[in-house]
Amino acid sequence: MMEFEYWWLLALPLFFTLGWLAARVDIKQLLSESTALPAAYFKGLNFLITDQHDKAIEAFVEAVEANADSLELHFALGSLFRRRGEVDRAINLHLSLLERKELPDPQKLAVMAELAQDYLKAGLLDRAEELFKLLDDSRYEQPALRSLLEIYVREREWEKAIETAVELERVSGVPFRKEIAQYHCEQAVQTLLSNDRETARKHLDEALDANKNCVRANVMLGEMEALAGNHEAAISIWKRIEFQQPDYLGLIASKLLASYRVLGKTEEGLSLLKTYLQTYKLPSLLNVVYEAAIAQNDAEGAAKLARDELVKKPSLQTLDQLLQARLIIDDAPQDAHIIQQSVRYAIGNRSAYYCSQCGFRAKHYHWQCPACNAWESLPSEPSESAA
Ligand SMILES: [Zn+2]
What we know:
single chain, mainly alpha, Serine Threonine Protein Phosphatase 5, Tetratricopeptide repeat, 21 helices, 2 strands, elongated, binds zinc ion
């Protein structure tokens, strides 16, 4: 009786492995082919499981040679090639499959989908685009649309990116509003380069139509007004950001204050920023209000701001500000200079925007992560380490 139970314990890992196989290979096909499958195939699987990819490739090449009719084996080998960066081998493999006259249409589509991925990986975007487009109305449509979108964003073809994202929303049911609004903003950036402000404004309105919470559109609309000297209009546009995503107010705080200053209403601007600061507690708002106080020779006010903040939340940055204000007031504690220097040294250059998707560290805010291309993936406020 005991022995029987032990036997089951030994069998468990086998069932896990079978489950793993079933997830990758059609189990029925595997069973029907298992007599025909060469030993090299299982050797290859074994190398894959133990992460010995070079040996796995050798084994799969052998398996494909011994079993030239199995598409699944070709695909497994092709995707191995791709993952190992041997894209030209993947391309040759799939091209030779396409040349086979006896290949039925559904299988042909499957090969095309693989080949398109090869081209994408190889950076042959035109050829990839051409193939992906041929895959619409097939069961590869959704992944093809995703890849097309990736291509258009990489090539900064925003019109096509918008069309593709809309289509992708339709077939997948997954919203792409945030991205679509960003593509419209990118169009606005492009048209502003050729000084076409009317068209730029049109694109920004479209961005807000696509996503009413698109902060970037209001940041840009306000900048355009301020640049044209319409500071009242700029201020009223930037104020809308509070009702979109208040976390982003820090992005326009100093611009907002500058526009108030041009209008001779610095005090009004400062009091608005202080209200924001009280409500949303953003460090970048504190910095702008603090700097404004220093610029107005109000070191007492600046010191009070920093002290109030320090009581609530200890921070080297704020301590540095308090010390700086104290040094101006001239009632600095003993050794204040050397303390401030040490604090500055400790802070160093660490403050940055860390991408929530890939951890990339950016000195300035970007709407699109320069490393992983995700949109609005940087936090609205810089921090001293990745979250
Ligand atoms: Zn990133």
